């Protein structure tokens, strides 16, 4: 099966490192420059094995997002990409002789929105973009480079972000709490949002194990240490516990909404 | 005497914390929000004692810089402010009955340009802004929140930044090397630019001393530890070694250039 994930965030915020960290890959992508004239969506496809399931992972990166001096249209390229995938699926669905089960579904199942760790609040571009995306894709905001923020600052920052999302009517993806087997974990996880994450392509020896970490002169941030950041929670929630729900809500909610508007035109 | 310093950088990049850290103050400024419609320059004045010299410190903050979705005019308010101070001085200088020695000189002696620690390169707004400012004020770029960057990443980042400044013909302030007593130190310091800085309003007990630091679960970044960041070098260079040169170049170079253009009009 396939899983399509979109990463939105400014250049240098850690998107490609986070994809490598989440999916244990080494995408070897050339770092993007800051001087792109507009936003381009670049997609990389990988064949992965995640807990013995073969998966086609499709990572879409927003190259140049937020870099322009005038960011007014930053979100347009993203919405266009999402709609294009919805439309391609719709065209296939409407055919008489369909091959839906063979169809390479490129609809985006999750959008990781990378929030810059300013410690203050969301930026204007974050609010505008997430508002445009929340009815088109499952938006999962994350605080990027969380090793920039102390525990006390993080608590205030998370509270501020959640308040701003509510104030601006932005509907972020909530882990489902209707299924008894996952209700308790998912409810707890919803209370920790947005996840504060750290990514790393480097491994460091801690004790007798090699772990993903960022090594500083004053200490080593261990990506998979839950006392250091929420990376493990993010991985658990989107790759293990809720991947099916992400794919389902994409089809039954976001795609349905697109289809209804498109067919009513 | 007075020292006027301008801090340019996006909201949440650590400007007010750095002013407190550099000048041992507790400016108690209310954190700025991200949703200002345009850039405003806000100035705070303090009476300080720096190594037994009484100094009037004037800190000018660029509130709202880089926050707008359209950042085209971000630099205009800054250039206008600088020119206004030059013009006020010029008007005083041209008077018949002058009181130059009583005059409250608000001309900016240094501009600390805060570079976001992306680890990649400068942003479009950085290049445009520094280019507009380099002939108007002594521009001293610094890498903000340097505790986000590992030693290896920092080395590459500094090299990239310096290359981009040269490529774009941006003239940053160089510590003077004509005076024998400071030539060696200043030359060495010019080779370390841009300074990678960390600021903190909090103190942590290290050994038996209270030191300015940022405490994380994986370790404590000590602001005044030269192995952790370049803060001590920045303070030494601008407050101790070169404050006089900063004030002098402002008057003899930047102001002179303004005066000549203004009188030629
Ligand atoms: N402090 C910190 N730096 C990170 C983290 N993840 C990546 N970086 C660094 O940030 C820089 C940009 O990362 P990259 O993944 O290329 O960002 P992208 O442009 O968003 O894809 C690199 O120097 C990374 O090593 C993180 O979690 N914390
Ligand atoms: N990681 C890190 N965070 C910092 C540093 N300096 C300030 N901060 C934090 O960044 C946030 C914004 O700082 P502030 O000084 O208000 O930024 P300003 O809006 O540019 O004035 C606060 O949560 C600070 O504690 C630093 O050197 N490193």
From TrEMBL, chains A, B:
Septin-type G domain segment(s): 1-265
Entry keyword set: Coiled coil, GTP-binding, Nucleotide-binding
Transmembrane segments: none
GO MF, one annotated term: GTP binding
Family membership noted in the UniProt record: Belongs to the TRAFAC class TrmE-Era-EngA-EngB-Septin-like GTPase superfamily. Septin GTPase family.
Protein name, per record: Septin
